[in-house]
Amino acid sequence: MAEGTRKVNWFAIWVSAAVVVALVLVTVLVVSLNNAGTDPGDPPQSAVIEEDTGAILVGEGPDRLDTYIDFMCPICNQFEQVYGESIQGLADDGTITLGIHPISILDRYSQGTEYSTRAANAMYCVAVADADAAVPFMQAMFANQPEEQSEGLTDDQILQVAASVDVTGIDACVTGQEYAGFVTAMTAETPLQPGASGIGTPTIAVNGEAIANADLPQPDQLATLFD
């Protein structure tokens, strides 16, 4: 057995344990969303955004990796730090098409400001304005991630993050939450991890199938998911 496969993926174990705690609460969110019949409004228009799934696409590889993230989720931030470079590498070398899904399951942790929804909306605003800036914006948002149970970043601060990756002129989209309804609708479509009763973040799907976070290989072995 190769040395890499013998290593314990403590990140995956930690994520799995944390997601289990979150699932009970998130189930309530999913039920309320389904009952509400939320109008998604007009979907963001961009060649890199799938209207039916909400995925922001990176790369053009034959295999597909989808990530479902919440900008208030500290484990999503950790996932990006651990796996982000490897995932981007697979997109850059033509192995995968990456689909990033900014969702909002943690609005209740932002003191009524609905930070998760506002942040996800902003990522769509950025992707529409400049597709190449979507990933840098995501990375910058995680670098400036607020603590849970805080009010989160203000709209002005989110716009400053966008400006730091050279995206401007999206003030009305961000402050008016142009895609908030779309974010809410796409959140309700997040796939369940194996054995889960509700959605959690981060959720990872390989070629359309959600996998358990405990099944994630080491970052340098991510390509084995597509063997």
UniProtKB/TrEMBL annotation:
Any single Pfam family the record assigns to this protein: Thioredoxin_4
EC numbers, comma separated: 2.7.11.1
Top-level EC class: transferase
A GO term for molecular function: protein serine/threonine kinase activity
Keyword Transferase part of the UniProt annotation: yes
Transmembrane feature ranges: 12-33
Gene3D superfamilies (alphabetical): Glutaredoxin
Keyword Membrane: yes
UniProt keywords, alphabetically: Kinase, Membrane, Transferase, Transmembrane, Transmembrane helix
Residues annotated as domain Thioredoxin-like fold: 62-214
UniProt name for this protein: Serine/threonine-protein kinase PknE
Species of origin: Microbacterium terrae
Underlying gene: pknE
